[in-house]
Write a structure and sequence with these properties.
Blueprint lengths: L1 H24 L3 H23 L4 H27 L4 H12 L3 H13 L4 H25 L7 H9 L7 H6 L3
Helix pairs in contact: 1-5, 3-4, 3-6, 4-6, 5-6, 6-7
């Protein structure tokens, strides 16, 4: 119990600080999230693929996270079918079911629990989850947006994500 509190209290304090800051200052989140999505995240993805040794451990992380995502996707589809969800509700359900909060919650938690040794695994997991979200998640969200529910519209939304354009150069330039 003590280790749980030692790990969770700092993480929860970070969230509480953000919550209180937003309540007190009424921050405009859009510019911050736009900066993160279009500049900071692509740099982080590039840096990870550029610096990280792309060895069998990285391959294992890639495969295991893909298997988990596909299993959750399949399970989500089965549950949604049993519950007779319409397309919009299905897409919202899938987005909340198959993608973990491995970045905002997982990385700080791993860092507090296991210190720097955990970053060797936590960062690649977060980046891979982010890539899956940038492809599969954007596709699911766009296909259920109520606009043009076509494959071309959903794929167009995927290709608008700048992080998807730094993966290949990061791998090609890997040291």
């Amino acid at each position: 119990m003590a280790i749980f509190l030692q790990v969770m209290v700092p993480v929860l304090l970070i969230y509480l600080s953000g919550f209180l800051l937003q309540k007190a200052l009424k921050l405009d989140i859009k510019p911050i999230s736009t900066l993160a999505m279009y500049l900071l995240l692509p740099f982080l993805v590039f840096k990870t693929f550029y610096e990280r040794k792309l060895d069998s451990n990285f391959g294992y992380i890639l495969v295991i996270t893909l298997v988990i995502m596909l299993a959750l996707l399949g399970l989500g589809l089965i549950i949604a079918k049993i519950l007779h969800y319409n397309q919009k509700k299905l897409n919202a359900f899938l987005l909340t079911t198959i993608f973990s909060n491995s970045g905002n919650f997982g990385v700080p938690l791993a860092l507090f629990a296991f210190e720097n040794s955990a970053m060797k695994y936590a960062m690649p997991v977060m980046i891979i989850h982010t890539i899956y979200m940038g492809v599969v998640g954007i596709y699911i969200a766009a296909s259920g947006s109520g606009k043009q529910q076509t494959i071309s519209y959903a794929l167009g939304s995927v290709f608008k994500q700048p992080m998807n354009y730094v993966i290949v150069p990061g791998i090609l330039l890997n040291r």
